[in-house]
Amino acid sequence: MHKETLEDIGEKELINRLRKFMPKNQASDDCALIKTKNNNLLINNDSLVENVHFNDISIGPQDLGWKAVISNLSDLLSSGSQKTLGITISLILPSKTEWVWVEELYKGMNKALKKYGGIILGGDCSKGSQKTISITAFGIQGELELKRNACKPGDIILTTGIHGLSKLGFMINNKVDFDNNVSLNKRLIRKSIKHFCRPEVYPFFLKNLLKSRSNKKRRRIGCTDSSDGLFQALQDLTISSKCKAIINYEKIPKDKDWPKGDIWDEYYFFGGEDYELVFSLPKKWAKNLTKLDKNINEIGYFSKGEPSIKFIDKCKNKLLKNAPFRHF
Amino acid sequence: MHKETLEDIGEKELINRLRKFMPKNQASDDCALIKTKNNNLLINNDSLVENVHFNDISIGPQDLGWKAVISNLSDLLSSGSQKTLGITISLILPSKTEWVWVEELYKGMNKALKKYGGIILGGDCSKGSQKTISITAFGIQGELELKRNACKPGDIILTTGIHGLSKLGFMINNKVDFDNNVSLNKRLIRKSIKHFCRPEVYPFFLKNLLKSRSNKKRRRIGCTDSSDGLFQALQDLTISSKCKAIINYEKIPKDKDWPKGDIWDEYYFFGGEDYELVFSLPKKWAKNLTKLDKNINEIGYFSKGEPSIKFIDKCKNKLLKNAPFRHF
């Protein structure tokens, strides 16, 4: 008899099933929470596995260390962390790993922490066949609770920065034959590789969110990051918040030299690893924020309805049919 | 040119080098520390890798889940944690892993948490070729600071429980040909397998330590656990505390049916995974404690001198020459 495997049930279903082992109030978002008398502590876990999440061809150890930290800080920020305390690191490495690789990895991690705050709190290292970097990051919960399930019908959907660049950088570094009909200019190539190897997070996000706040009663804000791509971020928000996302394709911020065409739309929507924030706010708040912060753009709104994503420009809806199915 | 690998430098040296990336006050013990206004938070990381730390032959998933939690709780206790808050879990699993395996693993983890306190706070799961369970555990620092580097010359060395049993259980479950000349009784076989598959920690330790306290000025106590064996625990204490351990072989607590002979001494000293506590106290405090708690025994004392371990009974010193060298 075939027993059900993780491949059969898929990643999302696996996460749902594992949540049943957690207390109900704990089991909601990317970050776990420890309540203390003064501050609540946000905790985030993220693992990078060789040949699943990275390979030695496309990224060097120092960039990888940087990126592993950024991926965790992005999750903390998208949960409303006002300050990063630090990280613990659990490494699994083959015995043949060169010391210099590990040293460079740690240098990259410390560079990212130096830029965005936090220290290496501790860690352990074990032998294994596949390089794995598992980071647990700690932040202090700010005044606002940012949650996937806190979007409301009528909210404006916003995003920081630009998507798709990291995917393009990945394809360039891996020499993927992405589109021979297009010649990319050097600036875009350099920018994309930088987005892939040294992504950044947006530390002023929370400050600007508080500055532009129009409604002091609203403490819970719908938010996630685009680490798995803009489409996945929107889908996670719609499913968790049980509402419908209406996207205005024309308003989506793109690099000025980003090529046109369906395949380039796909890279943009399904790319991932851009670590931008995707979130929703009441109209007035959204207006205040985009006025204050030119890196943030409105891209649509939420309405009542079954969890789904639709474009205002209907001819763009075919794009969503190409959404990749996420296997385990 | 041969570049230095992790195999070349070994586990201990690797840990030393990685500590240089941490702030100095942070880089001392197994557990990391986050200071908050009211309580200090102890954080422990521990990973179990398939075919390095466990295999499917010797241990089932529910026992493995139990043990993964115990291994972390033991580190928290040996750092002076007064209460376990919970754990986050980072799983790496091959896609072919059966769901029932994961379910049993989580059941085992929740059983251990139910017994000793704490909840599953969160986690993530990624695809990889080798099953890996990486746990981060959180506890609240109690009144006493338990540290590897806090033993003092003149302190009495003590240990909870009995060592070697888990190693014997491992050998029985793996059908290792350990000693054909010895026939073990059923009670010892059952007990050893239980110690290997369902090890326990000693939650009253800190309470009894506080109850028997003779010197309220001493807040820092030398302590570690025997997860890597009694010998390794003693060695870690002597090196971190820069003093010499003198062990009284006759006083070492053994199971009443534990066989005699050099090989059985080796299993006892170099076994590991017993998760007993090995620590040191001033004479009077040690006396009070062993009176109060019959599971705790004096096994020697620390004196001034180069970090080393010696037996009072000199003919037992040959045992230490067989100490296994820990490769990466």
Describe this structure in words.
Two copies of one chain form a homodimer. The first copy, chain A, has 328 residues and is α+β, with helices and mostly antiparallel strands. The first copy, chain A, folds into two domains: 120 residues, 60s Ribosomal Protein L30, Chain: A (2-Layer Sandwich); 177 residues, PurM-like C-terminal domain (Phosphoribosyl-aminoimidazole Synthetase, Chain A, domain 2, Alpha-Beta Complex), CATH 3.90.650.10. Chain A is built from ten helices and twelve strands. A seven-stranded mixed β-sheet of chain A has the order 6-8-10-7-11-9-12. In chain A, strands 1-2-5-3-4 form a five-stranded mixed β-sheet, covered by helices on one side. In chain A, helix 2 runs parallel beside helix 3 and helix 4 crosses helix 5. The longest helix of chain A has 18 residues. Chain A is globular and about 55 Å long. At the A-B interface, helix 1, strand 1, strand 2, strand 3 and helix 3 of A face helix 1, strand 1, strand 2, strand 3 and helix 3 of B.
Low-confidence stretches of chain A: none
Rg estimate of chain A, integer Å: 20 Å
Q: What integer is the average pLDDT of chain A?
A: 92
Distance N to C terminus of chain A: 21 Å
Which structural category fits the helices and strands of chain A? alpha+beta
Task: Please write the string of helix (H) and strand (E) elements of chain A.
Answer: HEEHEHEEEEHHHEHEHEHEEH
Task: State the name of the first-level CATH class of the largest domain in chain A.
Answer: Alpha Beta
* Name given to the CATH homologous superfamily of the largest domain in chain A: PurM-like C-terminal domain
Number of strands of chain A: 12
